[in-house]
Design brief:
The complex is a heterodimer of chains A (about 200) and B (about 190).
Chain A lengths: L1 H13 L14 H6 L4 H24 L9 H23 L1 H7 L10 H11 L4 H31 L1 E2 L2 E2 L9 H4 L1 H22 L4
Helix pairs in contact in A: 1-7, 3-4, 3-6, 3-7, 4-5, 4-6, 6-7
Chain B lengths: L1 H12 L10 H6 L4 H30 L8 H23 L1 H7 L2 H4 L4 H12 L4 H29 L11 H16 L6
The chains are: A mainly alpha (about 200), B mainly alpha (about 190).
């Protein structure tokens, strides 16, 4: 029983750091770079991914034994596209400002390789509870990365975090950090730092 | 003149990779050498132009009259997946050398978010049919330009002494950042 519990805990925590989808596996880079110009945007994109990934993994895991192997990829895509449509419409109806800020990047969750990757690598081969835990771990890891990246860029680019002014008045904001080049630079630094921490901890990439 | 503006805007000013962050997977994955980068760019340009044509027709002739605009995500992704398959079969039949050159890169394009992004942006910007096609072609040309420049830089980067943790993905991102900075200079063009 205890080994069963540790393995469930392992399924959850692996997404947070060891197999972090953005920093370690370089998946889902488009939304990571595009929406992290502020912490709020990063967090909302993360929440949309948590919803889509958990729902798709649950459904795929439930129907994994009745879907023929040859048509699995189109099936995954349709399931994912359906949940993304739900998330997109919900955001547009209840949170119009966030929906506007994220723009086409919400529909683009469909082609986010993290989601399809987890269906193919995990949900289609594992029972429901494990699939849900795995999906939660991966998407929370994704959300944390996006939020941290968003906070970093917002702090330097606008002098605030979650719209709360942090930097003193005299601070000259680094406009480039909230523009596209800043996204590449910040993510490059973050990947480098993550690799450096891992090499100190002795975790192989 | 308007068409030329749309082309330049899609190709360099609002470059898909460097300002919209679309198509980063092939941009990072296939930019180690110049040869494959050129093939990937050409294959993507071809599929982008086709996608712009077909999704425009589907959106304006089927979804809008039936008031089914909310189905755009599901229908676009299906159209793109089958279109890539079709293009692959067509190219194999018609031109063997072209098929060998594009080969493995064609199927990869289905999962390229730039293609779906293109279809969504085209709908958002409310282009007419001809403008949509030019927009698709321009976006493809911009993607090719970015990936070929990146491949050129990365072949030089092989010889550079990069700090250990930044090797691979880290330095590629930072290089892309510098490239994006350079592309910002085009912003004054339109």
């Amino acid at each position: 029983m205890s080994s069963f519990k540790t393995s469930l805990a392992h399924e959850f925590t692996k997404g947070l750091w060891k197999e972090n989808p953005v920093l370690r596996m370089l998946l889902g880079l488009c939304p990571t770079l595009a929406v992290t110009n502020s912490a709020v945007n990063g967090l909302s994109m993360g929440l949309a991914v948590i919803f889509t990934l958990t729902c798709s993994s649950t459904l795929i895991s439930l129907i994994r034994n009745i879907v023929p192997k040859q048509v699995r990829i189109p099936t995954f895509i349709i399931v994912i596209a359906t949940f993304v449509t739900v998330a997109d419409r919900t955001l547009a109806a209840f949170f119009p400002t966030i929906s506007k800020a994220l723009g086409p990047y919400v529909p683009l969750i469909v082609v986010n390789c993290i989601i399809l990757g987890r269906q193919e690598a995990f949900a289609s081969k594992n029972p429901v509870h494990r699939a849900i835990i795995d999906a939660l771990g991966m998407s929370i890891g994704f959300t944390l990365t996006l939020t941290i990246l968003g906070m970093f860029r917002e702090l330097l680019g606008a002098g605030s975090i979650f719209n709360l002014p942090i930097m003193p008045e005299s601070f000259d904001t680094w406009l480039v950090m909230i523009l596209p080049p800043g996204a590449f630079l910040a993510l490059g630094l973050m990947i480098g730092i993550a690799n450096w921490i891992n090499s100190k901890l002795g975790i192989k990439s | 003149m308007n068409l030329l503006l749309i082309f330049i805007s899609a190709a360099v000013v609002n470059n898909y990779v460097l300002t919209y962050f679309l198509g980063l997977c092939p941009f990072v994955g296939v930019s180690k050498k110049i040869g494959p980068a050129v093939s990937m760019g050409l294959a993507t340009t071809f599929v982008m132009t086709m996608t712009a044509t077909v999704t425009w027709l589907i959106y304006h002739l089927i979804l809008v009259p039936l008031k089914l605009e909310f189905l755009q995500i599901v229908s676009f992704i299906l159209v793109i997946a089958s279109l890539v398959q079709l293009v692959e079969m067509f190219v194999r039949k018609v031109s063997k050398p072209l098929y060998d050159a594009l080969g493995i890169y064609l199927p990869l394009i289905t999962t390229n978010c730039a293609i779906l992004g293109l279809a969504l942006f085209m709908v958002m910007k409310q282009y007419d049919f001809i403008e949509g096609i030019i927009f698709g072609f321009g976006a493809g040309a911009g993607f090719t330009l970015a990936i070929v420049i990146m491949a050129g830089i990365r072949t030089q980067l092989e010889l550079a002494d990069v700090p250990e943790p930044f090797k691979g993905a880290g330095i590629t991102m930072i290089t892309a950042g510098c490239l994006a900075l350079a592309f910002m200079g085009f912003a004054g063009l339109i």
